[in-house]
Structures are given as C-alpha cells and as structure tokens.
C-alpha cells in the first residue's frame, strides 16, 4: 500500500505551500534520538540530525514532553498512506525554545511552549478564523487533494499525506511558522498539564462543542481511549445529564466509571449496542460522538472487506450511532478516518433527520488559550488521564504495549533528557517491558 500510494503521489505532484518539511541539520553534525517508522509494527529509536533554522519563521525546540496518541497506531499498523521509511513520528509535544528564526519576534529562547499538532500559516482565510487545522498553505500532498477535493493543514509526524513534517517524538524538533504554532506556558503549569494542549484537550473539546452538547443532554461516546475519556469530562462540564461510554477494554470501562462517573456499555457482553442503548435511554441519545477507531472492525464481513482492501475504513460505529440517536439528534465523528467505507446506513441518516458532523481535525488554535485558562484556574486538571511515564528510549516498546492495552494504559507522558522532574501527583517513570497485565489482546 505504501509503495503504491507513494508512486501515485509522485505522479500527482506536490501542491504549493509556504513551508517546506525538509530541514537543515546542525553544522557540527550533531545528532539526536528520534522515533522513526520503518514498516508495519516496526518503529525504532534512531540517531537523526538535529534540526537547525531552515526558514526565517522557524523555531527549534528541545523537547521536554511528548506522547503517543491513539491515532499513532494507524501509522504503527501502516494504515495511513504516504509513509516512508525513516519518517520521524509524533504530533503531540512541548519543549523549551532552543533557537528562533530572524522573523520570529513573539517567542524567545528559553521559553516553555507547547506546539499545536497542526502547522498553520497564520495568514490564510481559515487561519484568520483560528481554524488552524484547515490551513490551505502548509500541506503539499497532491494525493490528499485528489482524494478529498481539498487539503488539511500540514501535521507533525503523520506521513507525507499530511505534509511529511518530522515529528516531536524526538529530542529536538523544528517548528515551521513557530511564531504562529507555539503557545507560551506559564511557570505555574507543569509539563504534565501543558502537554495535552497540543492535541487531545482541544480535540475532545472540539468534538463536544461542535456537536452542540447542552445542558440536560444524554450523550453517547464510542471509544474510551484518551479522547473519549476527555470528551466525557467536557460533556459533563457542558451540563450533560448522562454520559454513556461504549468500549470493551475492561480497564477503560473501569477508568470511565471511576474517574468521571460515566455509565458504560461493554460491547463484548452486549453485542447489540443499539438495543442496549434503547433499553437505557428510551427514545434515543441526544448526541453521539465517535471517539473510536477505524482499524479494528467488529464483524466478519468488515474484517474480510478490509483485509481484501475493498474498503479502508468501517462504518459500524457510525451506523450504531445513527440508529441509537433520537430523531433530529446529532452524531459527530472526531475519530480518525482516512478513506472509504461500505454498508453505510444512509437511509436511517436521512429518514431520522440526523445531523451527522465530521468534526475534522480539531483547530487547536481556536481553543488552546481558553483551555490553558481552565488549567491555570484549576477547573480542568488534565493529569487525570495520565496513567504512565516512560523514557523516549522505550518508545518502541511503548507502541507495542499501547497497541495491546497493557497495564491499563490510557495516556503516557514520555520524557527526554531535557524533561523536568516528575511533578507532584503524576506517575513515576516505568518501563513498558515491565508492565504486566494484558487488558485486551488484539488480533
């Protein structure tokens, strides 16, 4: 798949952008540790050149915190097209400013900052509206343009389909348009609370806001990984009367009930999720949000079709949401989907008057200042989702363990040699190789 997609991308050519993913390396030839992709389930910590200022708006960070995201597993399994051997992964990170380009006046060397996972130009019509993930000018993928009719912004560490920018699962990272894509962090907010402003907090908040959750709503959330857990929190903060989470990983179900008071459905026990929701909520949900994944089909039919590449994504969760939601209700999709699906229940969508919303990649710039204010005030404490802390050296084992849901893993803080000591109340350093209990074996 990768060879074919890369060949097609070469044929289609690149779209024009205002930034380049390639960077200059340091003149002294110095290297850093970085996590790179080499094939399905093959990620390695390598020595890579340390980036230097390449374009006048660049900022170079010493990474003090990074993490693994559920969407990174799509890369791990080779399910996102236009991956190339040696691509440095990672789109959720923060750090200390090491170098700044001559055009950067608002960011200073030595500042603590968090990066948005998307690279926005700051000038196009979307960026002017703070819709940073929709920037028109930073993703050169002609293939994405051909598939979707448009292009998203460039993203860090997420294949050449999103621009091919080296990511932040590394000791250093180049941030193009650093004057736009970095948010300074006050000293009162430790790294463990600031890091997730890069992605999961704006992403989960966007799903709740964009789907219009309001006081008294009954909300269903499919998938209780980090995005689902945070979306449940935000739905309750918006006044939802009930939140029902659907998953089959025992530790995640326990986590949701214990940490947030979420009602849960284990779909390994209730195979007919729609029937179970209708029993719990006569009349149906007000809002349903897909925080799950496309790469683990539940039914044999979709497993066969996906294996044979007759579809890239599966429609099972979306169909369950449409059938479980009340007439004229709302269904939102924040889960990462990439291509095409079969057996979509378009009839139920139309006849029930369901508002089906593709939330898109979350526009981090629209929300991150407000979310930082909630963190500063103590109204929001993101550390509730952090279950583990590991070293960058253990990234390959972390990918394998995260994929298998070992040891109740939810969100992991990954430290580098530049990281501050662990802050109070957060997990101590551990090694994935020592994690024990298999919560949920994957096929």
From TrEMBL:
Residues 226-292 form the Alcohol dehydrogenase-like C-terminal domain. Gene3D superfamilies: Medium-chain alcohol dehydrogenases, catalytic domain, NAD(P)-binding Rossmann-like Domain. It comes from the Eukaryota. The keyword Oxidoreductase applies. GO terms for molecular function: oxidoreductase activity; zinc ion binding. InterPro entries: ADH-like_C (IPR013149), ADH-like_N (IPR013154), ADH_Zn_CS (IPR002328), GroES-like_sf (IPR011032), NAD(P)-bd_dom_sf (IPR036291). Keywords: Metal-binding, Oxidoreductase, Zinc. Its cofactor is Zn(2+). Residues 56-186 form the Alcohol dehydrogenase-like N-terminal domain. Belongs to the zinc-containing alcohol dehydrogenase family. PANTHER family: DEHYDROGENASE, PUTATIVE (AFU_ORTHOLOGUE AFUA_5G03930)-RELATED, ZINC-TYPE ALCOHOL DEHYDROGENASE-LIKE. This is GroES-like protein. It comes from Mycena albidolilacea.
